[in-house]
Amino acid sequence: MNRTRQILKKSAAAVLCASLILSGSSTAFAAGSYQETEKAALNKLTEGIPETWDTYLENYKKSAAGSKSNMTLKVEDTGRALIGALMGGTDVSWLQSISLDSNISIKDGVEAIVSSVLLNDNKLCDFNVYMDLANMMEYIQIPELTDSYMKAPVSSDSEENSEEAQQFLNTYMTTLSDLTSVLPDSKTLSTLLDRYGNIIIDSFEEGSSVEESVSVDGISEECTAYEGIISEKSAYTIVEKVLTTAKDDEEIKALFDQWSDDASNEENQYKDFQNLITDALDDMNRDDEGSTENEAFSSKVWVNGDGKIVGRQFGITDGTDTTPVFTWKAPSEGEDSALLLELAADDSSFTFTGSGKTADGLLNGDYILAVNGTETVDINVENLETKPAKAGYYNGTFNISFPAAETDSSDSEAGESTEDDTDTSATDMLAGFGAVIKLTSDADADTSTLDLTVTTSGAALATLSITGSYGEGVEIPDFASLDKTYDATDDEAMTEYLTEINWDTFLANVKAAGVPDELATQLEDVLKAAVESASQPAEEENADTETDTDTTAEDDAA
């Protein structure tokens, strides 16, 4: 019973945190109490939902109809030198880049990914994947090797899947084929957020209200701090109100109508949903008996002179002591701004903090990620757009480095080993390495690129570039009319598939990409040996069958 109560408390705390974090740094206007502050922030959030959500749904539909993706791994000079050394001095000066250029679409219950594999900007082969979500079957074709297809079920027979699990997987994959069919519209989403957000906010008891300074990295703002308290008993009340309201919520019932293919199935699903709520409420009534714990959930917001929320803190209060579990503070002074994000649980903590200056809409600053109080990652931000021309289309650069961990010299001299030594050695392994993340976007062309460069001692090893944009979509074949398909779960079928492969075009493309003749010949020998090895079991089995037949005939003659 106590364990159930603890789970319920943690669940309630998680729900509270999530719901209140959503309102973020919204303007609270002339709020004069904790509840008024949160309600003003919630109203601001729900007012902006329709435009944001409708834009998201529109972009998803465009992306599902057709999108393009290019992933390129460019090997730099230092990277080639390192690879060559690891390969015993092999010359890899010919290796410049490896790319995967893809067109993607989701339509008519099929997810299609048509890709080209390139080496040094020269195409090696196409790699086409089609997932038939209706029949849970995947088709793969590599045209340069053969026009035939391999096919395999999304979930193989070897997996121990119950009928229910298989049905769930089918529903999940089908949902992915048209996500907009299961997502609520912006009006429903706004209504639900407003309804259940207010239930939570109304359950808070007003705590202290004091003038406090929010200060991070030397940047401060004078604020009014409002505190709200949820006792253990109130946490039960919140969950009870949420469940009771949800049980007969017309918007939620409409979602079940939207999710179901037929009326009878929808009715059964909705009744199951209501029965689950009834059972949960019954369990709550039993678990609530005899509860005497004094712990409470605390929520605190800092509001500046302009009515803007610039800080939040959630914690657990036991008597007069409050233990923070989540803290967010973002004070600013003119062009200068600072940020603190901290998560704490038991003896562990993750802290992200730093400051920067914003001029002409571009942020430049330095930030630190610390784990359990130890500086682990340093992040320098260069020219990051704070308000991009279009949501999600950012430009800017992040320079990431891993500082060497500091050790206690007294422990080292004494030869003592501590629990922190493992963390220190792991950090030291990364010291000297770094990464540069560059975001490049063109909102007018609807394209975005992320470049990730890994460095060592300041020298670049390799750069992974990922570019995404909208596309024209993919032509999907009629699976029932395919000339040849081979069952990937059938060994004999796959042996036949391998023997059908012609490597000539692929190997010619490999040589055209700049691979040395000697290495290309070695690759050809390996591929042919693999095909021969795969076909031998079938040949041996046929030979054994013929031998058994001859032996039987001889025995019969005798």
Automatic annotation (TrEMBL):
Composition skew (Acidic residues), residue ranges: 408-423, 538-558
Top-level lineage group: Bacteria
Signal peptide residues on this chain, from the entry's feature table: 1-30
UniProt entry keywords in alphabetical sequence: Signal
Protein's name according to its UniProt entry: Tat pathway signal sequence domain protein
Region (Disordered): 404-425, 531-558
